[in-house]
Write a structure and sequence with these properties.
The complex is a heterodimer. By secondary structure, chain A is an all-alpha fold. In chain A, 70% of the residues lie in helices and 0% in strands. Chain A is elongated and about 75 Å long. Chain B is globular. The chains are: A mainly alpha, B mainly alpha.
């Protein structure tokens, strides 16, 4: 991650917006992500149909003017289920990223501020979690502690911790070499105060970029877990579960397998574009390469 | 001298990681509800028969003794006996390895074969239409969940065109070609996101190298463009690509769990899933340890290969 250039001073909101509107990745990503978030929020107050309402005579209808994306084998409206599913996916991913950041960033920054055994132990523990394939451990975790959305959040969150800890560690180490940290030290500030006042605020940008990437990974892993029946539980709709139900009906109702997958692809694509755009905006030097 | 030291430190770290992993895996599976003795004898078993079996299986011993017994067995190649199948775990794993391993290797080869040329092409056409469209395509490739891609492949090639079976495994004994055919769609599904990531890494690593002075020198001394690109460029850009390939192997292993379930392939991934649902702890522990060990080993190999290619890395291990 040595390529990430740490900014010396934080940008003002105005500067940020001025650059953001000219960045194609950011603009497209923000529009897609905004749309998905809007749909998810809207689902709290309105969906075209009730997602738990079954309508057996109206089951397995192909997309039509009434049911925009068709109905499933219980006659539930697919579009409404996708809206509520968005809410569940996003909730899992947001909590998982928050767990990773809330624990990982302080650990990484602390390891950078204090050299010696403490720092070694933290970073080795990180390497250790990193050695586990994340999806495998998420599967194991949810299988042991019971399949549920909450456990999926924790399982994905645990594996976000070393990602943020590593990034915070590397970023902090680079910052500690800078003159403005040196002058803060000569003015008598201790390592804790320097970390809180100078290091953490300057790590914000790279954390936001990484957060967006982990967010999209979280959506993918949640979908995988739900597909295996280890994530969000019935009757709550989730994209992964809709796909696993659609699998047996692919021969006669392929649309059931197509729309939830498209929802995942659009959401993940939007977040990745947003992350790429943010990286370009925060660090213009990288732009020529990406 | 430095190389040996690096090698020892790195191997030592891998060994310790594996040891801790075994404790964590053993500990975590102890939390799983369910009594192995009851699992074997059924819910109608008599209490005294259950107690006798528990004693015989060593389930009454303190947890640390059970751990020592388990890990001691593994060191000598004995993974224990499956609760549900009543056969040695190593036998179960051995039989399924012949599906998962070819699958993993096929998808790794496939993704590398796609990613390297595509990444090189994008870098050599930097910022031109080819580059921009390749980058767009890889963005899409990363966003597509492999299990959904697998479903689309089944819909098109198995249900509609009927070129390949929709699932199940024909078995190697019915001809290599048939076995190969059953693994083709799963391998493609696994390879797509990997190839997208790898192509991006290849491109940006090559762009880094192309900006180096020695590349200009190579051109200046009159070497043809393609030779400069492949001999000097791609070769030097390979280090980050190698690292990512090592990391991807662990994604591949996790990916097989879902993909094997979609295609009803009786591989290691499906075995893990069955072991979880059937509460077959001994299979679960052995299998997870094996997979984690494999990932640790691959990462070790990558780091060592890395230090041979680039001597600067030896001093800075994991900084």
């Amino acid at each position: 991650m040595s390529e990430i250039e740490l900014p010396g001073a934080r940008e003002s909101w105005h500067d940020f917006l001025a650059k953001a509107v000219h960045n194609r990745s950011f603009t497209i990503g923000a529009i897609i992500t905004g749309f998905v978030l809007l749909m998810a929020l809207l689902s709290f107050v309105w969906t075209p149909f009730d997602v738990t309402e079954m309508d057996i005579p109206g089951k397995l209808k192909w997309p039509n003017s009434q049911h925009w994306l068709g109905t499933d084998h219980f006659g539930r409206d697919v579009f409404s289920m996708l809206m509520v599913g968005a809410r569940n996916s996003i909730a899992v991913a947001i909590v998982a990223v928050s767990i990773g950041m809330a624990i990982g960033v302080p650990l990484g920054a602390a390891a950078a501020a204090s050299k010696g055994i403490f720092s070694d132990v933290i970073m080795r523990a990180n390497d250790f979690i990193f050695a586990f394939p994340s999806l495998l451990l998420a599967i194991l975790f949810t299988a042991i502690f019971g399949p549920s959305a909450i456990n999926a959040m924790i399982a994905i969150g645990i594996f976000n911790i070393p990602v943020f800890a590593r990034l915070a560690h590397g970023g902090s180490l680079a910052l500690w070499q800078r003159e403005f940290i040196f002058s803060a030290r000569t003015s008598g500030k201790g390592p804790v105060r320097i970390t809180i006042e100078h290091i953490l605020p300057n790590l914000m940008n790279i954390m936001i970029v990484q957060g967006t990437i982990q967010f999209s990974l979280g959506i993918l892993i949640e979908a995988g877990l739900s597909y295996l029946g280890l994530g969000t539980q019935p009757p709550d709709p989730s994209w992964g579960k809709m796909l696993s139900e659609a699998q047996t009906m692919m021969g006669f109702a392929p649309y059931l397998a197509i729309f939830p997958g498209l929802a995942i692809v659009i959401t993940v694509l939007g977040l990745n574009l947003l992350g790429d755009g943010l990286r370009d905006i925060f660090d213009p030097k990288l732009r020529r390469k990406r | 001298m430095l190389t040996t030291l690096f090698f020892l430190r790195r191997t030592g770290f891998a060994a310790i990681t594996l040891l801790i992993a075994s404790v964590v895996i053993f500990g975590i599976t102890q939390v799983l509800p369910g009594d192995p003795a009851e699992l074997i004898l059924g819910i109608n078993a008599q209490e005294d028969t259950l107690a006798a079996l528990r004693e015989q299986m060593g389930l009454n011993a303190p947890v640390w003794q059970q751990y020592m017994h388990w890990i001691g067995g593994i060191i000598t190649g004995d993974f224990g006996k499956s609760y549900t199948y009543s056969v040695p775990v190593s036998e179960l794993i051995g039989a399924r390895l012949w599906i998962s391993l070819p699958l993993a290797i096929m998808s790794l080869l496939l993704s590398t074969a796609i990613a390297i040329p595509v990444g090189v092409l994008a870098a050599s056409r930097h910022n031109k239409a080819t580059d921009v469209s390749i980058m767009g395509a890889t963005q899409l490739g990363i966003a597509i969940p492999n299990f959904w891609f697998a479903m689309l492949l089944v819909m098109i090639f198995a249900i509609k065109l009927r070129w390949v079976p929709a699932g199940g495994f024909a078995g190697w004994e019915n001809g290599i070609f048939n076995g190969f055919k059953s693994l083709l769609l799963p391998a493609i599904a696994l390879a797509l996101p990997q190839a997208s990531i790898l192509a991006r890494i290849m491109r940006s690593a090559l762009l880094d190298v192309l900006a180096e002075d020695y590349m200009r020198t190579a051109r200046a001394k009159g070497l043809p463009r393609s030779m400069v690109l492949w001999r000097h460029g791609v070769r030097n850009a390979f280090i980050p690509v190698l690292t990512i390939m090592g990391l991807q192997f662990s994604f591949l292993i996790a990916g097989t769990i879902i993909i094997e379930n979609i295609f009803y392939l009786p591989g290691l991934g499906r075995l893990i899933f069955q072991a979880i649902t059937q509460r077959d702890l001994i299979v679960l522990q052995g299998l997870v340890l094996l997979l984690v060990g494999l990932v640790i080993f691959i990462n070790l190999l990558v780091d060592i290969a890395y230090s041979i290619v680039d001597p600067r890395i030896k001093g800075a291990f994991h900084e």
